[in-house]
Amino acid sequence: MSTSPPTPTRRALLGGAGAAGLAGVAGVTGAAPAHAGPWTPARYRGARLLSPADRHLVGRFSYGVTPALTATVHRQRGGARWFERQLAPERIADGSAGLRTWWSGLNRPAQELWTRQVDDVEGGWEVMADYQRYVLLRRMHSSRQVLEVMTEFWENHLHVPVNGDAQFTHRVSYGDTVRRHALGTFEQLLHESITHPAMLVYLNQAVSTKRRPNENLGRELLELHTVGRGAFTEDDVKASARILTGWMVDLWRTWAPSYRPENHWTGPVRVLGFSDPNAAADGRELTRRYLRYLAHHPATAQRIARKLATKFVRDDPPQALVDHLARVYLANGTAIKPVLRALVAHPTFRASAGLKVKDPGEDVVSTYRALRVAVARPTGARAEQYAANAMLWQASALGALPLAWPRPDGQPADNDSWSSPARMIASLELHYTLSGGWWPKTGATYRRPAQWLPRRRVRFDFLVDHLAQQLLGRRSDALLLKACCEAVGLSRREVITARHGLVRWNMPRLLTTLLDSPHHLTK
Q1: What tens-digit pLDDT sequence spans the chain (523 residues)?
Q2: Strand ranges (E), 180-238
Q3: 223, 318, 208, 216: which is closest to 264 by C-alpha?
Q4: 248: helix, strand or coil
Q5: 300 and 223 Cβ atoms separated by less than 8 Å
Q6: Are 246 and 256 in contact (CB under 8 A)?
Q7: Global pTM?
Q8: Percent helix / strand / coil, the chain, rounded to 5
């Protein structure tokens, strides 16, 4: 179903500059209770919202401020305490743990996955599509929101695309590894990622030997994962590749990872300020020393600090903020949590509300969360039509499948990459179809239009304010109210009941007007 063209006011909302807002809701609303008459200003009480500062913090480090999340933040006495508790995810029950069983391929070992592909039972691309769906649903349902956000960040920084006839065999395990270390130290995360079979396969380290060293992983380790372009020479790349020889994967047969000393290049090596006699045939400890050196390098600290600031603050973070985060990173032995604490405490972070555009995956997940769509486990002959499967194609329509960026640099985190007219049109379509519950219909439970009414009789301007609090986690303003009035052709003082035409056939247009606003499309 196509969206109607935006009215001039809706276009103004979509292009409004400096709009500070986050996707979200605050307060739980069920079926509309009885009430004697329309609300009046004296009788109106809104939901208990988060403060602007808390809404900004929680919105940046979650996939949408849901009613349950809002209640949790209040219960934990504010955003700062919520954030600190989130940094210890092992203490939080993970409501998304059971999602892994929805797709059987996510639990199969590498060799079995390969055999099933060769035998035309289940292709690797099908397993990886299921992994992408699983990732989207984890982001939607997990109570460990900061962990999920940081897992996505590191899976893009240490990027192994899900698509590929070789690395898919170990890609689910790779995601688990990144998630396990996403809030630990970058030193440990780097070692576990670089030596993981998925990374070894993707960047050809799995076939790199002392006789024929392959430079792909050695180069990307320097250029993308640590010190960055311009900080190293071609001689550094060659030495980096030699250091990593010995890490192997038995391609096209058992897919088993191993370390083979007979394939390790020995002899003196030097990369930047790192040097080693490299006399032992077993170079695993050499790899650890080398990766430790790179993780603690000042250029790596600057690169990690800038990427975090670009992701969570603004596209052009001030150098003073980057320098501050880099110092914290080095002073704490590459520990990630102190850097995140320093980031959210910085005045530049507090002043950046509304300055980041949601990428396609964030838009899909936060829209499902805002509209409170319940997604069921795909079963039976129509499983492909279930929302849990179809939502992947919704993300694709917006311009990006999760973890499928074709280059090793990972999906970008800047606004320009996700601000094209085509993406905007696709977002309008997504918001409208989900607001109406039109697609996907199978395996999804949507709220009935009347359930969005706070009372049986409510004046339209108060309904808009109520919906703004429910969907956006904030009060309505004059511009948003004007857009809603124009979108559905009602005056602000019109009285709405469950039998009103707005509820009977036009509620999707009203809901999507709020979702099309910068308050939902930015964070």
Answers
A1: 333 333 333 333 333 323 222 222 222 223 333 333 444 444 445 568 999 999 999 999 999 988 789 999 999 999 999 999 999 999 999 878 799 999 999 999 999 999 999 999 999 999 999 999 999 999 999 999 999 999 999 999 999 999 998 999 999 999 999 999 999 999 999 999 999 999 999 999 999 999 999 999 999 999 999 999 999 999 999 999 999 999 999 999 999 999 999 999 999 999 999 999 999 999 999 999 999 999 999 999 999 999 999 999 999 999 999 999 999 999 999 999 999 999 999 999 999 999 999 999 999 999 999 999 999 999 998 999 999 999 999 999 999 999 999 999 999 999 999 999 999 999 999 999 999 999 999 999 999 999 999 999 999 999 999 999 999 999 999 999 999 999 999 999 999 999 999 999 999 999 999 999 999 999 9
A2: none
A3: 208
A4: strand
A5: no
A6: no
A7: 0.90
A8: 55, 5, 40
Of 453, 372, 513, 519, nearest to 39 (Cα)?
453
For 269, the 3-state DSSP assignment is strand
Tokens of 293: 């050196």
CA 202 from chain center: how many Å? 22
**Total number of residues shown for the chain:** 523
Rounded CA gap, 181 and 167, in Å? Answer: 20
Q: Which helix (H) or strand (E) holds 463?
A: helix 460-467
Fill in the DSSP letter of residue 357: B
In the block, tokens 């980031």 appear at 343
Q: Say if CB 132 and CB 400 are below 8 A apart.
A: no
One-letter amino acid identity for 245? T
Kindly give the pairing relationship between strand 444-445 and strand 374-375.
antiparallel
What are the beta bridge partners of residue 274?
A: 271
Cβ–Cβ under 8 Å, residues 358 and 23: yes
